[in-house]
Amino acid sequence: MRILITNDDGINAPGLATLTAIAHDVAGPHGEVWTVAPAFEQSGVGHCISYAAPTMIAKLSDRRYAAEGSPADCVLAGLYDVMKDARPDLILSGVNRGNNAADNTLYSGTIGAIIEAAIQGVKGIALSQFFGPDNRDLDDPFEAAAKHGAATVRALLDKGIWTTDAYKIFYNVNFPPVAAADVKGMKVASQGFRENTRFGMQPETAPNGRRFLWVTGGPQDEPTGDGTDVNANLDGYTSITPMRADLTAHDMLADLTDRLK
Asked: What residue intervals traverse the membrane (predicted)?
C-alpha cells in the first residue's frame, strides 16, 4: 500500500511523527509512506488552497517533503507532483494536536486535507487527538492515537463504507482525552455542536502602539448531544464520523421548492 500523509500543525509537529508510525504500520513492510506537510503551522485554514500564489516545495529526505502552503495544497502537491507517477491508495491527515470534533471540524486544516483527498477520488481519513487533564501531561500525550491509530485505520479500510459518488465519503477520527489503556473502544458518531463554545476576537495594543486582534477559542470539554463525537470522546471512546463535502441541506430541498413555487 502507498500512503500519503500530511497535517496542519507543520512538518516538525510531534503528531506527524505519530502519524508516520501509524502509516508505516498500516502500509506494511512492502508498502510506502510519503510525507508532504506544511513547512509552517496551518491550523484553522480549513479547505483553503493557495489559488492566487505559488506553493514552494522542498525535499527534506527520501519520500519526505515540506510545502509552503495549506494542508489541501500539500495533498495537491502530493498527487500532482511528488507522487504523480503512482498515486497513493490512502491519504491520512494528522495526528492533530487537539480535537477536530463538533464545530472545530469546520475550521480544521486537518479535515481540509481529507476533503481534498475525497474530491480527488482518494480514500482519506483525518486523525486528531483530544487533549484533557487525563492525557495532556503524559510523557506522550498522543499515546491513545499511537496505540489505537493503526487498528482504527485498518478497521475503516476493511469494513468502512467507501462510496463512488461525486462527493465521496471520508472519515473524521478523534481519539479520546485519556491514556491509551483507558480507551474503551470505537463509536460511530455524528458531528456535534458545542452550544457554549464560539471563536471570538480579543483586541490588544502592541508596545509600538499598533492594534492587533487575536482569535480566541472556548472550552473544549463542552458536551454535545447524545450520539455525537464530543460526547463519545469525553466518555473515553474513539469517535468515527463519516463525512462528505456536499454542503446541500438535502432535507430542505422539497419544502423550499414548494415555498418558492
From this structure: none
Which grid cell sits at 186? 470505537
Tell me the C-alpha distance between 45 and 101, whole Å. 16
Residue 246 labeled ligand binder: no
8 assigned to a ligand binding site = yes
pLDDT on residue 134: 97
Strands 32-38 and 90-97: unpaired
- From the number of C-beta atoms within 10 Å of its C-beta (0-12, 13-18, 19+), residue 210 rates as exposed
pLDDT at residue 228, as a whole number: 98
* pTM reported for the whole predicted model: 0.97
Give per-residue burial for 98-125: e unless 16+ CB within 10 Å, then b.
bbbbbbbbebbbbbbbbbbbbbbebbbb
DSSP state of 221: T
User: Which residues does the chain have with pLDDT short of 70?
Assistant: none
Q: Residue 16: which H helix or E strand, with range?
A: helix 14-27
Residue 142 CB contacts under 8 Å (≥ 6 apart), including other chains = 14, 15, 18, 95, 129
Let me know how many helices (H) and strands (E) the chain has, helices first: 6, 11
Cα–Cα dist 118/244, whole Å: 8
What grid cell was written down for 97? 494536536
Pull the grid cell for residue 47.
479547505
The answer to whether 128 is annotated as binding is no
CA 128 and chain centroid, separation: 6
pLDDT of 196: 85
Q: List the domains of the chain with CATH numbers.
A: 2-193+223-259 (3.40.1210.10)
Cell of 201: 476576537
The CA–CA distances, whole Å, from 172 to 89, 105, 126, 220 equal 18, 9, 5, 17
